Amino acid sequence: MKTTRLILVGGFLGAGKTTLLWEAARRIMENGQRVGLITNDQAPDLVDTAILLHNNIKVSEVSGSCFCCNFDGLLNAMQQVREEANADIIIAEPVGSCTDLSATIVQPLKERMDHELLISPLSVMTDPAHLNDILSGKTSGMHLSAAYIFMKQLEESDIILISKTDLLSTDELTALKEKAKAKFPEAEIMTVSAITGEGIEEWLKEVSNRTNAGQRLAEVDYDIYAEGEAVLGWLNSTIELSGEPTDWDAFAKNLMQDFSSQFDGMKAYVGHVKIMLESDENYLIGNLTGKGDTLNFRGSAGTGSKARLTLNARVEMSPEKLEQIVRDTLNTKTTDSLAARIVTLRCLSPGRPNPSFRFDHIVTN
Ligand SMILES: Nc1nc2c(ncn2[C@@H]2O[C@H](COP(=O)(O)OP(=O)(O)O)[C@@H](O)[C@H]2O)c(=O)[nH]1
Ligand SMILES: [Mg+2]
Q1: Do 265 and 328 have their domain in common?
Q2: What is the CATH number of the domain that holds 204?
Q3: What CATH number is attached to the domain comprising 318?
Q4: Whose CA is nearest to atom 5 of ligand 1?
Q5: 287 plus 185 within the same structural domain
Q6: pLDDT tens-digit series, residues 231-281
Q7: Atom of ligand 1 nearest to the CA of 272
Q8: Nearest by Cα to 233 from 350, 311, 345
Q9: What is the domain range of residue 26?
Q10: Which of 228, 249, 280 is the last residue before a domain boundary?
Q11: Residue 192 CA: which ligand 1 atom is closest?
Q12: Of 43, 57, 118, 174, which has fewest CB within 10 angstroms of its CB?
């Protein structure tokens, strides 16, 4: 089988990974190369997979466990994408609350698949506001142990990829890059905006040409790491909506605003709440990655009498509480003229990470 390039894009929940995956995939295809994507989650019914599938790209999902705890799942997904899409390039997005990827994924891959894979430097994407807070010694509203995960992700990265640069002035961006470089002198600092396209070509060029992946290992305390993940309630659900013709965009916005004001009211840290509302061929995506001011929507699901809602929420609270809020909120949207039927609902708090492999040294090829 031909050699395939693997680009891993890690980074905390809501950093902008899936948005970049799609933008990068589009550009790679325009260049005449074949691309396959791999998504990852603790449970199935992932909005990210649904979004990417809508764009006619080969997507394989590793669900039920993160890549590091299900290394074989990652290998199988890569095999599938390579066979079915004959991919020249695979881009994979690990779970946003995962760290220690250099030790648990990159080094084992280097050792086992050196002849089949060209592994790109590990890119860790970071939201600029969170990065600024974390570099200033704050927790950016997160639990202390979740902030620890955020920091460890940066520590092990080959490339720190600052996202959403459209939200910063040139001076702010320069200052943030300098601050990041001072803290992580061994990492390359790059910047992208999916909105303006700034930096995407440069980043793609860098990860497509370099092969020195996994040059750094972070020292990770698994007790703190486990706590940082366990404080998050995790919910994936699919819901069928049916009734009188409904303006689905207004419905989605109202639903997300409701979630947002409840979480803000409870001072519960929102990692990511993401919805996809599909009606016929139309769809709308809604995202909340913090307080109410992060709420944003794109696309349109139009008006119709039937729709399918996929909901993924990662919020700092017990899974039981999160499930109750989701069920209660959906109930308030149900009327005589609109029914909501929960088709699947999984709610959990991630278990202690138990990686398939964990290397204590950097593999040199
Ligand atoms: N302003 C801005 N927002 C972005 C950019 N990239 C992603 N986002 C938003 O960030 C949120 C999280 O994006 P997503 O790709 O799902 O993040 P992931 O959780 O890391 O996969 C969404 O609301 C996106 O619309 C960007 O370049 N600029
Ligand atoms: Mg994502």
Answers
A1: yes
A2: 3.40.50.300
A3: 3.30.70.360
A4: 164
A5: no
A6: 999 999 999 999 999 999 999 999 999 999 999 999 999 999 999 999 999
A7: 19
A8: 350
A9: 4-228
A10: 228
A11: 27
A12: 174
pLDDT digits (tens, 9 = 90+) for 127-149: 999 999 999 999 999 999 999 99
Distance 111 CA to ligand 1 centre (A): 33
pTM greater than 0.85 (yes/no): yes
* CB of 271 shorter than 6 A to ligand 1: no
Q: Token pair of 265, please? A: 């009211």
Confidence of residue 225 (pLDDT cuts 50, 70, 90): very high
CA 43-313-78 angle, 5° bins: 40
Q: For ligand 1, is residue 19 a contact (CB within 6 Å)? A: yes
Same domain, 14 and 137: yes
CB of 167 shorter than 6 A to ligand 1: yes
Is the CB of 166 inside a 6 Å radius of any atom of ligand 1? Answer: yes
In a domain, 170, yes or no: yes
Give residue 39 CA to ligand 1 midpoint distance, Å: 15
Q: Is the CB of 159 under 6 A from ligand 1?
A: no
In Å, what is the CA distance from 346 to each residue of 236, 255, 331, 332?
A: 5, 19, 18, 20
Task: From the CA of 298, give the closest atom in ligand 1.
Answer: 25
Tell whether 357 is covered by a domain: no
First CA to last CA distance, the chain: 20
Q: Domain check: are 248 and 181 in the same one?
A: no
Q: Mark whether 96 and 174 lie in a shared domain.
A: yes
Residue 356 lies in a domain: no
How many separate domains does the chain show? 2
Give yes or no for residue 266 CB within 6 A of ligand 1: no
CA distance 73 to 354: 14
Distances (CA, A) of 39 to 32, 54, 205, 329, 334: 23, 14, 22, 28, 32
**In this structure, are 40 and 158 located in the same domain?**
yes
Spatial distance between the Cα atoms of 159 and 182, rounded to a whole number of angstroms: 14
pLDDT in tens, 21-37: 999 999 999 999 999 99
Q: What is the pLDDT of residues 64-73, one digit of tens each?
A: 999 999 999 9
Contacts of 236 (CB under 8 A, 6+ apart): 41, 43, 44, 45, 46, 310, 311, 312, 344, 345, 346
Residues 136 and 274 in one domain: no
Q: Is the CB of 16 within 6 Å of ligand 1?
A: yes
* Cβ of residue 14 lying under 6 Å from some atom of ligand 1: yes
Is the same domain home to 282 and 328?
Answer: yes
Residue 353 covered by a domain: no
Q: Which residues surround ligand 2, an ion (CB under 5 A)?
A: 17-18, 48
Q: Any idea which ligand is nearest the CA of 256?
A: 1
